[in-house]
Amino acid sequence: MQKKNAKKCRNQNGFTLIEILAALVILSIVSLVFFQTLGQTLFSSEEVSHRQTAIHLSESILNQTGENREQLPPISLGERETWLSPEDGLPGLDVQVEGEDRYVVRNGERFDLEVVLDRTDERHEEGLVTVIARVVHEEENRSAENVRLVRLTEEGEGA
């Protein structure tokens, strides 16, 4: 009878403690790699979103500048200056002011704005101004810069 019980104990199906610990170690390593990759993907996705918002804002600034060129301050040939003070706001952009900084809040994120008007190139003798719209995400320094030539006067109006 004892031989039968001894044989039963040896033939029991199941896992040993070593096998369970090895499986837990493997599972832990796989989980660590998975969650690290997931975290990097989410962070990368957020970066792309901020960059797209910055690009959209800079394009919006340039579009508004082109459509409302009468709002552009006078700028002489050979000058380059920063523009977009609070009183120079553009339609469709709710520009906030904090000291010297101008910014827009989109989706709860702050994007600093800088608009530069440049007439230091020979092309500017033809009544053109280069408008440079630079938008920077406050925390991550993700930025977008777009440049467009804008005619200061309508064709035939004279410079």
UniProtKB/TrEMBL annotation:
Principal subcellular localisation of the protein: other
The entry's keywords: Competence, Membrane, Transmembrane, Transmembrane helix
A Pfam family reported for this protein in Swiss-Prot or TrEMBL: N_methyl
Cellular compartments per GO CC: cell surface
InterPro entries, per the entry: N_methyl_site
Entry's transmembrane regions: 12-35
Domain of life: Bacteria
Signal peptide (UniProt feature, chain positions): none
NCBIfam families assigned to the protein according to its UniProt record, in alphabetical order: IV_pilin_GFxxxE (TIGR02532)
Name recorded for this polypeptide: Prepilin-type N-terminal cleavage/methylation domain-containing protein
Organism of derivation: Salisediminibacterium halotolerans
